[in-house]
Design a protein that fits this description.
alpha+beta, 2 domains, seven-stranded antiparallel sheet, five-stranded mixed sheet, 23% helix, globular
């Protein structure tokens, strides 16, 4: 339910925008409060492209929130391990007249306005044009397009399938699964190319946050050039435009058997949360669908994607310090390790982006694997075991803090419900910083490490955690009455490291050190 404060803020913004001449006609959802300059660009661009004979339609932007997980789970049996740190921004567009609309995926990302969908097929001669005012300064924002579903079968002989089936059989249906109401289609949700993010814009145009910027998404170089030429007529500087190529490996078209796509924007750790909330309540962004209906016009496709190379500060230098921290924590809690490597007490997280998991868009697409909305702008490390907190268990997560080792702009630890695959809570790098300093007397490089606790009731262990603890409430993870049952709700912890400073991508996961789960009770 919307809060009174948020409703009041929204009404003030709408009133102010009406006085300023902002767009709020039938082509724009009321919560998209479009600045007059952006609206003029939208209208002039539409007019120019229409005059050239192109078809143009307009969609709207909305937030994908934790509440929308109800729709995702009802239609797809998953919430895709959403990052609970911040809602995603997605858009809905009207289908082309002859575009197949799969009823099985209609409400995957929430309830859209009549005549709009959050997923779409792509005409080979189509471009999506997104522009408007980018969000206020933050640790990160990026926009990326995904192959959402496609006809086909799983590659059960692949290394990833065999590894998961052998080692994590209960997770097999998470990573290899069909669309529940349309079994001939696979859930893929795989990235198609390199994300366009704030660092890309900073390098290209000198600034990104709070600026008017433009995205062109297309499988056709000619359409990309056409849109860019039209924007040039409107005095849009080419340095403010980025393109996202849809690779030639996609099955384009508007028919039932064609690939289905979606796009989303991530925006995380804003410097000013009030400014960020104001921007989210406005979403001053426009999305246009543009297509050339001339079927005889040759298409200029893009080649298969080549992902950017990722580099990192090699964190192996901190491995001994992390092992020492694990041993010291176990000892302080009165459950000292009996093995030299503490393997009796501690378990390393799993790196999801490296083989054999290989949760990387093109790799997932090749074998029919559900990539869960991956991006090369972050690393994904997940706790190996499903963790229960229904019987007084206490867990500590210890790891290298990538923002201090030089490998990340920000780090987040998220609590995820294993049944819903839903992010429930998040601990960011500002909270993680200095959390291991209580062991600095006996552990070297404690300033480069973090230590955080997760329990059903943190108030009872305050003296041992120093307040660095997340209480797992019943609303987050319900109480499990059957100990050990796979049908109970458990939690998993996911660590994300976004954007290595000095690069445009996340650190190379092979050069980072996996976090460690320590069971203390």
């Amino acid at each position: 339910m919307i809060s009174f404060k948020k409703l009041a803020l929204h009404l003030i913004l709408v009133s102010a925008c009406i006085l300023a001449g902002c767009a709020s006609d039938s082509t724009t959802q009321p919560k998209n409060i479009i600045p007059p300059t952006v609206e003029k660009t939208a209208q002039d661009l539409t007019a120019d492209l229409t005059a050239q004979g192109f078809q143009v339609s307009r969609g709207y932007f909305r937030l994908y929130t934790q509440e929308d997980c109800d729709y995702s789970y009802a239609t797809m049996n998953t919430c895709y391990g959403n990052n609970p740190a911040s809602p995603y921004i997605i858009f809905a567009v009207p289908p082309w007249p002859e575009e197949y609309q799969d009823p099985a995926t209609t409400q995957t990302f929430g309830k859209m306005d009549p005549g709009y969908r959050g997923t779409f097929r792509l005409d080979p001669r189509e471009a999506l044009v997104i522009f408007g005012v980018m969000p206020p300064p933050a640790a990160y924002f990026g926009l990326q397009t995904y192959l959402f579903s496609r006809e086909g079968t799983f590659d059960t002989t692949s290394a990833a399938y065999q590894y998961i089936a052998t080692n994590y059989p209960l997770m097999l249906s998470t990573y290899f699964t069909s669309v529940p109401a349309n079994q001939k289609r696979l859930q893929v949700f795989a990235s198609l190319s390199n994300s366009n993010n704030n660092v890309v814009f900073d390098r290209q145009s000198g600034a990104s946050f709070s600026q008017e910027r433009y995205f062109v998404i297309s499988p056709d170089k000619i359409m990309d050039g056409t849109v860019r030429a039209s924007l040039g007529k409107l005095a849009v500087n080419a340095s403010n435009i980025v393109s996202e190529p849809i690779p030639s490996t996609m099955r384009l078209g508007l028919g039932e058997s064609a690939d289905e796509f979606m796009s989303l924007m991530r925006y995380a750790m804003p410097a000013d949360e009030n400014a960020a909330e104001l921007w989210r309540s406005q979403l001053p962004l426009v999305v246009l669908r543009v297509r050339d209906t001339r079927k005889d016009r040759a298409v200029q496709p893009y080649p298969p994607v080549v992902l950017d190379t990722r580099i990192a500060v090699n964190e192996s230098q901190f491995t001994a310090s992390l092992a020492s921290l694990v041993a010291e924590v176990s000892s302080r809690w009165g459950v000292p390790c009996t093995k030299a490597d503490c393997s009796d007490r501690a378990t390393a997280f799993v790196d999801l982006q490296s083989p054999p998991f290989s949760l990387v868009g093109p790799d997932c697409t090749e074998i029919g694997m559900n990539c869960l909305g991956d991006t090369q702008d972050t690393t994904y490390h997940v706790s190996k075991d499903a963790l229960s907190v229904s019987n007084g268990e206490v867990y500590a997560i210890a790891g290298t803090l990538a923002t201090e080792t030089g490998n990340a702009t920000y780090t987040g630890l998220s609590v995820n419900d294993t049944i819903l695959k839903k992010g429930m809570a998040n601990v960011n790098s500002m909270q993680l910083k200095n959390s291991a300093l209580g062991y600095a007397g006996t552990v070297s490089n404690a300033d480069k490490l973090y230590l955080y606790y997760f329990a059903r009731d943190c108030s009872t262990i305050q003296g041992l955690t120093g307040g660095n603890c997340v209480t797992i409430t019943e609303s987050m993870i319900p109480h499990c009455t059957v100990k050990g049952s796979p049908l109970c709700d458990y939690l998993k912890i996911v660590q994300r490291n976004y954007i290595k400073p000095g690069t445009v991508r996340a650190p190379d996961p092979l050069q980072t050190v996996s976090p460690i789960t320590i069971k203390l009770r």
